DNA sequence: GCTTATTTACT
DNA sequence: GTAAATAAG
């Protein structure tokens, strides 16, 4: 008669869950445990949209566990203390959990290992739960991680992934383990009105629909802003309600150029995770400095505010920023454009933008968010420091009829076609009809400031 | 075998 | 411009 604990973190599912399977194999009784980590709030990482989505996920996980005779135990507090407490109460001899990559996750794992080993218990950390290919599983000859995507992707693609694990059929939880119960989404305030629903069942339904109907058009459609033809699976990947290993297997099974392009995006996710695992400081500091002297937040306060609120006077930027606040999610092309605009055109520190995204994005993820921001800011792994995206050119390319802008910027709904991307070109009397701001900065002016600051010519 | 130049490709 | 692969020492 032995007891194991499964500590759920960013893996809120029962399908394809190596820690859960390992615990069930090792022990006759298992405690599925989630700790509402008070440290996340004090680290400034908590956000209402993710709190609400998390509540859905925990409720659904509890339901799935109950369906096979178990339940989810929820506690609050410091993770190491809470887990040690449950371990002492139940006499568990091992704790199984997924490996994480952030500095926070690495610290958490270390503290947990110390406290458990002090009690004579084991911590077992499992790979390929949060990513398909584990960080460090492939490395170049001269470094502990890849800094260029293309060679990483070649190696990543050659990795043999483990088989997908079935959901458990039966779970016995020891009697009398106290739980706080799962939180309610309804009690989270300050969420985006159009926030998606969380939970493994919702994620699996979405995945099936995506593979059946969406993925085939992904290669052609992924950058089409109004078409909205991306998978929207990012929140489920962030909370682990879907398994990246299973996604890769099933997408490869679907086949075709759309599936290949989609799998490539999943590899980008793993790429950023392996960078952060090796360089956890990159969440807060330049991966490779360009010696920027960003405009101070004080000096740029009005520009930053306009950017956050979606009133920069560049319609596609404002549309994307409003989509973010309304849905807690933004189209990937919008993320690139708004990040380029903040860091290059306004020359504001990428950390300011990354912070705002983390405050709102339901899929807000330290590895992907921080490193993609750095990628766009030119301080990351990318080797092109002077890449600047022109919001007008890009808008005409990826929103040729202006439908995306009109959807999110109703003030401009009266402007037909691509004219909506340049409202300042309307003749004076026409323009007065639209309660929409003039551009807060000239593109050429911003570009010049940026190039001067970077010493580019 | 190991270090150092050259080539290649780059969301 | 730069990282990785390859060729050369």
TrEMBL record:
Asked whether the UniProt record includes Lyase among its keywords, one would answer yes
InterPro entries (UniProt xref): Crypto/Photolyase_FAD-like_sf (IPR036134), Crypto/Photolyase_N_sf (IPR036155), Cryptochr/Photolyase_FAD-bd (IPR005101), Cryptochrome/DNA_photolyase_1 (IPR002081), DNA_photolyase_1_CS_C (IPR018394), DNA_photolyase_N (IPR006050), Rossmann-like_a/b/a_fold (IPR014729)
* Residue span, Photolyase/cryptochrome alpha/beta domain: 2-131
Q: Per its UniProt entry, what is the enzyme's top EC class, as one word?
A: lyase
Gene3D superfamilies for this protein:
1.25.40.80, DNA Cyclobutane Dipyrimidine Photolyase, subunit A, domain 3, HUPs
What EC number(s) does the entry state?
Answer: 4.1.99.3
Similarity comment:
Belongs to the DNA photolyase family.
Entry protein name: Deoxyribodipyrimidine photo-lyase
């Amino acid at each position: 008669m032995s007891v194991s604990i499964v500590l759920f973190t960013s893996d809120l599912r029962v399908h394809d869950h190596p820690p859960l399977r390992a615990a069930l194999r090792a022990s006759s009784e298992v405690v599925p445990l989630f700790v509402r980590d008070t440290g996340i709030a004090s680290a400034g990482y908590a956000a209402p949209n993710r709190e609400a989505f998390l509540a859905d996920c925990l409720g659904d996980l509890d339901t799935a566990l109950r369906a096979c005779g178990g339940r989810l135990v929820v506690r609050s507090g410091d993770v190491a203390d809470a887990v040690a407490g449950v371990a002492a109460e139940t006499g568990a001899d091992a704790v199984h959990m997924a490996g994480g990559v952030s500095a926070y996750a690495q610290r958490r794992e270390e503290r947990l290992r110390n406290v458990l080993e002090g009690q004579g218990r084991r911590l077992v950390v499992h790979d390929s739960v949060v990513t398909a290919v584990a960080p460090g599983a492939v490395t170049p000859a001269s470094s502990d991680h890849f800094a260029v995507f293309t060679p990483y992707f070649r190696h990543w693609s050659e990795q043999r992934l483990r088989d997908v694990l079935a959901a458990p059929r039966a779970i016995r939880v020891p009697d009398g383990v106290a739980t706080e119960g799962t939180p309610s989404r309804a009690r989270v305030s300050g969420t985006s009105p159009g926030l998606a629903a969380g939970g493994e069942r919702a994620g699996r339904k979405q995945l099936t629909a995506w593979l059946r109907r969406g993925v085939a058009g992904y290669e052609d459609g992924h950058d089409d802003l109004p078409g909205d033809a991306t998978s929207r699976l990012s929140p489920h990947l962030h909370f682990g309600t879907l398994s990246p290993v299973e996604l890769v297997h099933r997408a490869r099974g679907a086949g075709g150029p759309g599936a290949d392009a989609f799998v490539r995006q999943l590899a980008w996710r793993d790429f950023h995770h392996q960078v952060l695992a090796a360089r956890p400081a990159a969440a807060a500091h330049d991966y490779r400095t360009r010696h920027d002297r960003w405009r101070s937040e004080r000096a740029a306060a009005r520009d930053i505010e306009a950017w956050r609120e979606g009133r920069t006077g560049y319609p596609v930027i404002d549309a994307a920023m409003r989509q973010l606040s309304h849905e807690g999610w933004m189209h990937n092309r919008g993320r690139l454009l708004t990040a380029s605009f903040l860091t290059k055109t306004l020359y504001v520190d990428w950390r300011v933008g990354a912070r705002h995204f983390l405050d709102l994005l339901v899929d807000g993820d330290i590895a992907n968010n921080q490193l993609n921001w750095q990628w766009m800011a030119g301080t990351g792994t990318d080797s092109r420091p002077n890449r600047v995206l022109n919001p007008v050119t890009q808008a005409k390319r990826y929103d040729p009829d202006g439908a995306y802008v009109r959807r999110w910027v109703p003030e401009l709904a009266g402007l037909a076609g691509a004219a909506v991307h340049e409202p300042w070109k309307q003749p004076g009397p026409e323009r007065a009809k639209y309660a929409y701001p003039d551009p807060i900065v000239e593109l050429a002016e911003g570009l010049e400031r940026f190039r001067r600051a970077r010493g580019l010519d």
